[in-house]
Amino acid sequence: MNLLANLIPAGAEIFLLVMVCFILIADLMLTNSSKLFTYLLVQMTLLGCSVITVGTHVEGVTYAFNHMFVDDLMSDVLKLMSYLGVSMMLVYSRQYLMVRGMFTGEFMSLALFALLGINVMISANHFLTLYLGLELLSLSLYAMVALQRDSAVATEAAMKYFVLGALASGLLLYGMSMVYGATGTLELGVMSEAINNGVQNKALLSIGLVFIVSGLAFKLGVVPFHMWVPDVYHGAPTAMTMMIGSVPKLAAFAFVTRILVEGMQGLQADWSGMLTVLAVASMALGNLAAIAQTNIKRMFAYSTITHMGFLVLGLVSGTVAGYGASMFYAVVYVMMSLGAFGMIMILSRAGFEADTLDDFKGLNQRSPWLAFMMMLLMVSMAGVPPTVGFYAKFSVLNAIIETGHIPLAVAAVMFSLIGAFYYLRVIKVMYFDAPESHVPINLGADTGLLISLNGLGVLMLGLLPNALMWICTLSVQQSLLVP
Amino acid sequence: MDIQTYYLLVPLAPLCGAIAAGLFGKWLGRKMSHRITIAMVGVAFYSAVQIFLDVMNGHQFTGPVYTWLVSGDTSFHVGFLIDRLTVTMMLVVTSVSLMVHIYTIGYMSEDPGYQRFFSYISLFTFSMLMLVMSDNFMQLFFGWEAVGLVSYLLIGFWYDRPTAIYANLKAFLVNRVGDFGFILGIALVLMVFGTLDYAAVFAKAAAHASDAAPIAGMSVNLLTAICILLFVGAMGKSAQFPLHVWLPDSMEGPTPISALIHAATMVTAGIFMVARMSPMFELSDTALSFVMVIGAITALFMGFLGIIQNDIKRVIAYSTLSQLGYMTVALGVSAYPVAIFHLMTHAFFKALLFLGAGSVIIGMHHDQDIRNMGGLRKYMPITWITSLIGSLALIGTPFFAGFYSKDSIIEAVGMSHLAGSSFAYFSVVAGVFVTAFYSFRMYFLVFHGEERFGKAHAADHHDDHAHADDHHADAHDDHHGDAHDDHAHHHGLAPGQKPHETPWVVWLPLVLLAIPSAIVGYIAIEPMLFGGYFKDAIYISEHHEVMAELHEEFHGAFAMAMHSFTSLPFWLALAGVASSAFFYLKRPDIPAAIQKRFQWIYTVLENKYYFDRFNDWFYAGGARGASTFLSKYADRFLIDGMIVNGSANMVGKISGVVRKVQSGYIYHYAFTMIVGVFILLTIRNWFA
Asked: H/E element holding B51?
C-alpha cells in the first residue's frame, strides 16, 4: 500500500494537526488584544476539516496504516458533528471567556487537540489507536479544566478528573491487556473473528471485558462510574463544562460501539447484561439526584448521566435499529447540551456566573425570546413531543421493545417521567417567578443567532427527524459490520 | 358560472366575510367590515337563488367535495347534498341572514363590539349552511356544533353582563344534554349501517327496520333507538320540552341574533334534521309518537308562559317555543312538508316580529318592559304596521302566511291515527287561542292604549328585566344624542321624551320581511305541499297517509282561506284577539283581579313550571355536590395526598440520600469505581 493511500483517509486529522501546531506558534506572536485573529483561524480550520472530511469520503469502509485507522460513513458523520459542536462551543464561549481573561491561544489549541483526540477515537480500528485518541482527548480536557489556575474549585475539579481518569485508564488498559492475552490481537476485526472462532481461556477474556466496560463506563459517565461528573461539571468554568459535556460524548459513543459491537460482537450476551445494569442505575440515580440540585450545572451533570444511560440502553438491544437510535441520541444530546450550557454563558457576565436555578427566575420578563429558546431545550431534554428529544427517546424505546425488553422500557419511561420534573421546574421559574436581577442581558449577534438556531433546530428536527435518523441507521449498518 | 361553483360559494362566501371582519376588523374599520360581510352574504343569497333555479329545473347533486380522513372502511368527508329540501333551507337562511346583517348596522351602531358581531353572524351563516347542505352525519354534526358555538358566543355577546354569561352558560349546558343524545345516535348509525353517508344509510334503513339489541334487559328496536336519540339532539337545538329552558334566557343576546338564530334558523335545525331523516323516522311509529307528544306539550304549555311575560323579547321567545312545538307535532304526524312549510313562514314572520321588537327597543332607548310602552303607533308608524302584519301572520289570520302553514298542521294532526294524536290535536287547537291572546296582548300593550313611557319606572321591576345595560356607557358616538349617557344604569325614556321612528337600515328589513310574511303562504302552499315539491327529498311511508288526505281536502289557497271562516281555529283566534283587547285596552283592571284571584296559577307560570328551580337544584346542585365530594376525597386526599405528594416526598428523600453520597472526597469516588468493577464482575459471572 503506498503512502498516499494511507494519508488520504486521515487527511482531516493531518490537516488539523498541522493547523494546531501553526496556531500554537502563531498565537505566540499575537498580543492579547488580537486574539480574535486566532479565533477566526480556528473557525477556518474547522471549516477546512469539514471540507476535507466531506471531500475524502468514499463509499464503503477504507482502512489505513495497517488497519489501525478506519474511514467509513459513521466516522465521517460523527466527525462532521464534532466540528460543528466545537465550532458552536467556541461561539458560545467567546464572550464568556473574554471577560474572564481566558480567551487565549492555549484554550483554543487545547480545544483543537481535544478535537484531534476525538477524531482519532472515532476513526480507530485498533486498541492502540483507541487508547491514543482517548489519552489525547483526556489530557487536553484535564488541562482545560485547570486553565483557571487561581480558582480553587476549578483546580480541585481538574485534580479529581485527572486522578479518577487515570484510574479509569488503568482499568481500561488492564482489560485490553487481558483481551490481548486471550485473543492474541489488538485489531478489532481480527479480534471479532478470534472470539467467534472460540478462545481457549474464556475466563480471561470475560474478565478483560469487565475491565474494558468499566473504563468505557467512566468515559460515558454512567453509574457507578459517574462520581466525577457532577464535581467536574460544577467546578470547571462553564465553557470547559460545555466542552466536556458535549462533543466528547460522540467520541465515547464511537469508542463504545467500536469496541463492543465491532470487536466483541461474540460476547454480546455478556456485555449487554452489564450495560443493562449500568443504564438502569444511571437513569434512576441521575434523575433522582438531579431533583435535589439547586445549581443548574450540577443539575445538568446528573441530567447527562441520565442521557448516557438512555444512550447505553439503545446498545442493549443489539440490533441495527438500536445502534442507530443510540447514535441519533448522541447527536441530539450534543445539540441540546450545547444550547443549555450556552444559555448559562449568555446569562453570565463579568464576575457573575448564572449557574443557579434562581438566576433563571423571571427570564421571560427579561427576554421572552431567550426564555422561549430555553423552554424548547428543556422540553426537548425532558422528551416531550414535538421536540427532537422525544423522538430520540422514542426510537431507543422502540428498539428495545422490539427485542422484547418490555420491563426495561417501562423503567426508562418511569424514570423519564420523574426527570421531567426538574426540566419543567426550569420552565416554571423562567415563566412564573419574579426576576431576581434586572441587569440587561448582553447578547452578541453571533450568540443570539446561534442560540435561536439551536433552539429552533431542536424543534425542527423533532418535526422532521427522518433524514438524521436515516443517516444514523445507515452509518451503523455500513460501519459496524453487523448483520 | 358552473353550478358547482355556486355550491361552494354559498357556504364559503360568508366564511370569508367572517374571517375578514373577525381577524382584520380593527384594521378594516366599522364601515368596511359591514360592507364586506353584507356583500359576502349577498353573494351567498344570490348563489342560493341560482341553485334554486337549477334545482327547479330538475337537477340534484350529491357527492363528496373534500375527503378529510379515512379510518378503516369509514371515510369522513365534506360533501353536499343539494335537493329541494336543502335549497329551501338555503334560501331561508341566506335571505333572513341578509336582512339581519343590514338591520345590524342600525341596531349595533353604538356598540364597541361592532366588527366582532358581524364576524359572528357571518360565521353563523356559514355554519348553518354547512349543516343544511351536508350529505353525511359527520358534517351535520360539525354544523350542529358550530351553530351551537356561535349561538353561545352571541348570547354572551355582552360578556360584561352577569345575566348574559348565565344565559349562555345555560344554553351551553342544556345543549350538551341534547348533543350527547345526538352523537350517541350518530354512533349508533355508524354501528348499525357501517357508514355515515345519508344516501347509503337511507337505502339500507328499511332492511334494518326490525334490528333489535338487548339493552338493560329489554329488546330494543335499534332504528327506534337511533331516531329517538337523534331527536334528543333536536330537542336541545330546537328547544323542545324539557330541554326548552335555555331559549327564553338566550334573549340576553342582541336582538338581531334573537331574530336570526333563536327564531328563524338555528332553532329550526332540529326540525330540518328530522325532516331530512324522514326515511328513518318513517320506519318507527314509536319514535314518531314520541316526537309528536313532545311537540304538543311544547306547543301548548310554552304558550301559556307567554301570557304573563312583560319583557317584549321574552314574549316572542315563548311564542317561538310554542311555534317550534307546532312544527315538531307536524313532523310527528309524518307531515314533513307541512313542518318545513311552517318553518319557512315562521322564519319570515318571527324574524319580522323580533326585528320589530328590536326597533321598538331602539325607539324606547333600550327599555324592554312592555308595561312602560303603549300608544307607540303614532311615533313609529312603520314599525307598527309591520309588527301588526307579523302578529296577524303568527296567529293564523286567513290569507297571511302563518295561516296556511298552521292550519295545515292542525288539519294534519286531526287526521293522524298515531298513539297520542288526540292529545296533540287538543294541544294545537287550544294553542291557537293562547297564541292569539298573548300576541295581541303584547301588540295592544306596545302600540295602543295609554302612553305609559316617560314616567317613573314601575317600582317592582320584573326580574326577567335585568339588563344592566352598561355597554352604552362607553359607546362613543351615541347617534340618539340627547341625555342617553345619563341613563347608563337607568335606561329608557326620560320624562317628557318621545319615542321616534328608527333609521332606514332598521325599518327596511322590516318592510322586506313583512312582504313574505303576508303573501308567501298563499303563493307557496299549493306547490310546496301538494305539487310533489319534496317528493325526492322527503320519504313518507304508505302507512302514514296524512299528506295524501290533506291533498284530498285541499281545493286551492283561496278556498282554504274562505273555508276557514267556518272552522274552529279561526273563531278561537278571533276570541283570543277579542279577549286580549277587552282585558288590556278596555278593562286593564280585570287582569290584575284575575291575578289576585288565581295567585297560585300565576306563581306556577311565573316560575316557568319550576323547571329552572328543579334544574338548578337537581342538576347544577347535584353536579356541584358530586364535584365537591370527588375534589375533597378522590382528588385532594387520594390522588394529591397519597399518590402525587406521596411519591414526590419519596423521590425527594432519595435525592437527599444520593446527595450525601456525593461527598466530594476523591477516595470515596475511587472506592465507588472499584465497587462498580466488582459489581460488574459479579453480574458477568451471574449471567455466564
From this structure: helix B3-56
CA distance B213 to B622: 32
Q: Do A167 and B673 touch (CB under 8 A)?
A: yes
C-alpha cell at B136: 353525511
CA distance A276 to A273: 5
User: How far separated are the first and last CA of chain A, in Å rounded?
Assistant: 29
Q: Which residues of chain B does A418 touch, with a Cβ-Cβ cutoff of 8 Å? A: 651
Give the span between the Cα atoms of A26 and A32, in whole angstroms.
Answer: 12
Nearest to A403 by CA among A294, A307, A269: A269
Best of A167, A209, A210 to disrupt the B interface (most B CBs within 10 Å) is A210
Assess B665–A contact: CB distance below 8 Å, yes or no.
no
B177: enclosing H helix or E strand: helix B162-193
B663: closest CA of chain A, how far (Å): 9
Q: Are the beta carbons of A269 and B654 separated by less than 8 Å?
A: no
Q: Judging by beta carbons within 10 Å of its beta carbon (0-12, 13-18, 19+), is residue B22 exposed, middle or buried?
A: middle
Report yes or no: B660 at the A interface, CB cutoff 8 Å. no
pTM of this prediction?
A: 0.61
Cβ A227–B687 below 8 Å, yes or no? no
Q: How far is Cα of residue B186 from the mean position of the Cα atoms in its chain?
A: 20
Which phi and psi angles does B78 have, rounded to 5°? Answer: -95, 125
Place of cell 302566511: B401
**Best B650, B669, B674 residue to mutate vs chain A (most A CBs within 10 Å):** B669
- Read out DSSP for A161-207? HHHHHHHHHHHHHHHHHHHHHHHS--BHHHHHHHHHH--S-HHHHHH
CB distance B680–A269 less than 8 Å? no
| Maximal C-alpha separation, chain A | 70
Name the E strands within A281-423.
none
Residue of B nearest to A221 (CA): B673
- Using an 8 Å CB-CB cutoff, list residues of chain A that contact chain B: 159-160, 163-164, 167-168, 171, 206-207, 209-211, 213-214, 217-218, 223-225, 227-228, 230-231, 269-270, 273-274, 277, 285, 288-292, 418, 421
Nearest residue, CB atoms, B655 vs list A218, A270, A292: A292
Which secondary-structure segment (H or E) carries B87? helix B84-107
Q: Which helix (H) or strand (E) holds A233?
A: helix A228-235
Residue B81's SS3 state is strand
Task: Give the closest-approach CA distance of A289 to chain B in angstroms.
Answer: 5
pLDDT tens, per residue, chain A with 483 residues: 577 888 888 999 999 999 999 999 988 888 767 778 889 999 999 999 999 999 988 888 888 888 899 999 999 999 999 999 999 999 999 989 988 888 888 899 999 999 999 999 999 999 999 999 999 999 999 999 998 888 888 999 999 999 999 999 999 999 999 999 999 999 998 998 899 888 888 888 989 999 999 999 998 999 889 999 999 999 999 999 999 999 999 999 999 999 999 888 888 888 888 999 999 999 999 988 888 888 999 999 999 999 999 999 999 988 899 999 999 999 999 999 999 999 999 999 888 888 888 899 989 988 999 999 999 999 999 999 889 999 999 999 999 999 988 999 999 999 999 889 899 999 999 999 888 888 888 888 899 999 999 999 999 998 888 889 999 999 988 887 654
Q: How many CB atoms lie within 10 A of CB B50?
A: 17
Q: Which of A201, A227, A234, A298 to mutate to test the interface with B (most CBs of B within 10 A)?
A: A227
User: What phi and psi values does residue A383 have, to the nearest 5 degrees?
Assistant: 85, 40
CA of B670: which chain A residue's CA is closest?
A: A164
Q: Highest mean pLDDT range out of A298-302, B63-67, B460-464?
A: A298-302
**Contact, B97 vs B41, CB < 8 A?**
yes
